[in-house]
Amino acid sequence: MGSFERLLFAGRVPAHRAIDRSVDQQYLAKKKISRLLFWGLPMPSSAEYFCRNQGALTADQQQTLQQKRVAVIGCGGLGGYVIEELVRIGVGRLHVVDPDAFVASNCNRQLNALTSTMDQNKAAAAAHRSAAIHPFTVVHPFPVDFREIADRDALRVDALVDCLDSAEARRDLAALGSQMGLPLVHGAVNGWCGQVGVQLPGGDLIDRLYPARTVTGTADVPSVLSFTVAVVASLQAAETVKLLLGLASPLRNNWMHIDLKNSDFLVHG
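Now predict its structure.
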């Protein structure tokens, strides 16, 4: 790993330089693919990569996903799985945002938290892993808080995915989504339970789930289980794909409560 990558993984590279470097890495990856083709080595096409999507998705829907952009805000537990699944289904461009670095306590549930990624920036690690999956999704890492991204064009996407872990940050992201006219796919976890919902532009789902209030004292750090994270993140990825493809969902401006201990899934209006 070069000096730039070490700085990026540590979160000490400005967001615009991280984007530029990500584009460079995608370009170099494509050059490497071109060399493989030149030497006659097999390189699967996008149709081969995504052929197992067919049947559940039409060819036109697959092409639509390739043209879409999604911003995933938070690249830890939920975000790591959401990014993985959106890459593997073939969404064309992801902007992944997280200022934090991995620590040992992340390893029980976060896909990219490994002994080899300790102290690395979560957004950069997600982009690095995504580039190794296939070359058909461009992933731009932003190793900063989403509220510190000065260039709002970076968040001009087709959907926002809320993988945050604080009520204040969620309200701020929902406000930003409303301001920019973007749908927001929300997810949260606590122990065996979680929730998923979709706030459309002009909706108030996040305000209903997280009403503004004065917080006193220090909140306990919640228990978070690996399988709860994986289930909630998968539901978020599914809701994101439905938004991108214009498919109906009962979770528009509604939310689902998931209780894995009692195998209970309940949609709330």
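The CA atoms of residues 193 and 209 lie 15 Å apart.
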